Amino acid sequence: MPAPGENLRIDPARLWDSLMEMAKIGPGVAGGNNRQTLTDDDAKGRALFQKWCEAAGMTMGVDTMGNMFATRAGEDPDALPVYMGSHLDTQPTGGKYDGVLGVLGALEAVRTMNDLGIKTKHPIVVVNWTNEEGTRFAPAMLASGVFAGKHTQDFAYDREDHDGKKFGDELKRIGWVGDEQVGARKMHALFELHIEQGPILEAEHKDIGVVTHGQGLRWIECTVTGKESHTGSTPMHMRKNAGRGLALVTELVHEIAMKNQPNAVGAIGHIDVYPNSRNIIPGKVVFTVDMRTHILPKLNAMVAEFMERAPKLCADIGVEFESKIVGQFDPPAFNETCVKAVRSAAERLGYSHMDIVSGAGHDACWINDVAPTAMIMCPCVDGLSHNEAEEISPEWAAAGTDVLLHAVLETAEVVG
Ligand code: HGY
Ligand code: MN
Ligand code: MN
User: Which atom of ligand 1 is nearest to the CA of 386?
Assistant: First the structure.
């Protein structure tokens, strides 16, 4: 199949305008976004995305997890579609590009195909996956996980946010329960463009990351139980301070990650302290440990060491420790043919590139289990993400989207 010509490029200004337009929905307090999944702002972002897709001549399908699929017809309607996309939901203090670049970059690729009257054998579908972030409703990549058969829909609908609202109820409330059975769609391939969310590409002065693998992830929700009592009048030897358990476990997670360098990370990002009163010793602390590496035996060993040592640390100070896995996936190795299409696209377009392992989890990590999948990354300033100051350059956005366009056209087979 002849590859698209190296002069075939997207419209960088149109892409950037769309990114800035979407960023106006669910603004953060410091220049980023707070467009959390299944909020009214998420609904507004979905509506704008649907409007743009329909203006680009695509037809929108929605499944029972709210996943959105905008289809551009192919010359062979029986050929399995080539999918491209990511997520529009953001962290509570998220950036403007995490996920959004992958969705709007895919839309820009279709707009460019329309401008040039490009026809493909395979239909092309632009995707917005529901709840990639997993911050309001754990786990992350929830809807792509249901699509890939990793979770049941009942499990997903039952997930509760901090206020006890259920995923299924919130999806219904915002009016985005679709009629398609989730997971029924079959894919010829899927490509996801995403910002790196780390410092490597910028430090190496590379425009494109050719993602060969992703890190595996374990989210362990821990509950440390002590005894609430007065911070002033309770003698030190009589205290059961759950906060100390959190401190010891936090340090343990860091120690295990550092012992397993390179290519291992660990931290605790979510913490709820009860009753969280200045003059009451914490009686209970609930927190989530996030451990990752792209080496599966190492990941399993890190978790095993944690599960062996954490309960003892807590018992030694007289507090109880319980834990449960609330999110997990093994390290994905992406499809070699799709990865090659990404790499050759970068070469053809003259963009500097390097192979890279994705540090963050992405919907592509789950879809990789049900269809040939690959990812394209662009740098981000100082490697910063999951922070309102997240920034990329218009040039980086355009380069990544050019590569996405070429890889998708090569895979979807241009026929005219
Ligand atoms: O947690 C992750 O890696 C992704 O950003 N949800
Ligand atoms: Mn993301
Ligand atoms: Mn994210």
Answer: 5
